[in-house]
Amino acid sequence: MSLEVHMFPCLSDNYGFLVHEPESGFTATIDTPEVEPINAALAEKGWKLTHILNTHHHFDHAGGNETLKAQWNCTVVGADNDAARIPGIDVRVADGDRFEFGAATAKILEVPGHTTGHIAYYFEADDIVFVGDTLFALGCGRLFEGSPEQMWNSLQKLMALPDDTVVYCAHEYTQANAAFAMTVEPDNPALAARVEEIDRLRSAGQPTVPTSIGLEKATNPFLRAESESLQRVVGLSGRAAVDVFAETRRRKDDF
Ligand code: ZN
Ligand code: FE
Fold first, then answer.
1. Measured between alpha carbons, how far is 159 from 162 in angstroms, rounded to an integer?
2. pLDDT, tens digit, for every residue of 23-75?
3. Which site from 1, 161, 194, 221 is most exposed, i.e. has the minimal number of CB atoms within 10 Å?
4. Cα of 29 to ligand 1 centre, how many Å?
């Protein structure tokens, strides 16, 4: 509604995001993948960093926390159940909490699976969700700490958001994800059309992020455990969605 999101590349394939709320003048960085590009983006926009909103503890998400906090004296927000691994954490949030960010509000969604303490920030009034490494365009995070059941539950929470919700994921992994997706759902016309669009964007040097919940539900194999053609390809026709998801994730790990 009123939030401005500024996206820029960090490290080899991360995205950095600044979120600016104009009434309060607050500016948050979603995670801290790399200090210099974050500071360059702040300078470019003329914004002062007031908050760090961490999705999870991995170094390419929280590695810049201490430097940026020392520089800007900003407030660090992170998962209560993972506070020990979030450097400089000031505000601990949990599932269902509403974090007031000036005139905007982020609803906290606990989405364990990639890590046990992973959270997403859902700005409901603005139709925006920051999902970190839980959901990617045509992909989902690796299960480093959580079980397939946990990750499937987390993905279902995100799938329950409105289709037009804008999804900011933390990496540009889309072309590699697309190659895998085509192996498990080769006869999905929406997927085939999207892969063409992705190739066009990437050859023009354009990002494929953000995406949307509706587009992911139509094309992302990790959200399509109910698809009969996907079930057939992974040899689990008629099986429970969580089993189909687990097998699809396992195949991607070996892809
Ligand atoms: Zn991660
Ligand atoms: Fe990451």
1. 8
2. 999 999 999 999 999 999 999 999 999 999 999 999 999 999 999 999 999 99
3. 1
4. 16
